[in-house]
Amino acid sequence: MSTTANTTSEEVSSNEWEFIHMSEQEEDLICRMYKLVGDRWNLIAGRIPGRKAEEIERFWIMRHADAFSVTRNQSKAKHS
């Protein structure tokens, strides 16, 4: 008799994410840090007390979702 472990994916569609509220100061710091270090979310989160890298990345993706989809669509159009 063979048993298999039930595995669940921790990935969640961005459509299911709850919006993460950041203060104006946090948003400003995230934007400035992103310009300096790129998507090094752990480094950015280390500058914002109480925030995790995953929160910062999710906030960034949700805030810039329209820009990401436009870029992807432009890229697809060029390759068609």
UniProtKB/TrEMBL annotation:
<dbReference type="GO" id="GO:0005634">
    <property type="term" value="C:nucleus"/>
</dbReference>
<keyword id="KW-0805">Transcription regulation</keyword>
<keyword id="KW-0238">DNA-binding</keyword>
<feature type="domain" description="Myb-like">
    <location>
        <begin position="18"/>
        <end position="66"/>
    </location>
</feature>
<dbReference type="InterPro" id="IPR015495">
    <property type="entry name" value="Myb_TF_plants"/>
</dbReference>
<dbReference type="Pfam" id="PF00249">
    <property type="entry name" value="Myb_DNA-binding"/>
</dbReference>
<keyword id="KW-0539">Nucleus</keyword>
<dbReference type="InterPro" id="IPR009057">
    <property type="entry name" value="Homeodomain-like_sf"/>
</dbReference>
<keyword id="KW-0217">Developmental protein</keyword>
<keyword id="KW-0804">Transcription</keyword>
<dbReference type="InterPro" id="IPR001005">
    <property type="entry name" value="SANT/Myb"/>
</dbReference>
<dbReference type="GO" id="GO:0006355">
    <property type="term" value="P:regulation of DNA-templated transcription"/>
</dbReference>
<dbReference type="GO" id="GO:0010026">
    <property type="term" value="P:trichome differentiation"/>
</dbReference>
<dbReference type="GO" id="GO:0000976">
    <property type="term" value="F:transcription cis-regulatory region binding"/>
</dbReference>
<protein>
    <submittedName>
        <fullName>Transcription factor TRY</fullName>
    </submittedName>
</protein>
<dbReference type="GO" id="GO:1900032">
    <property type="term" value="P:regulation of trichome patterning"/>
</dbReference>
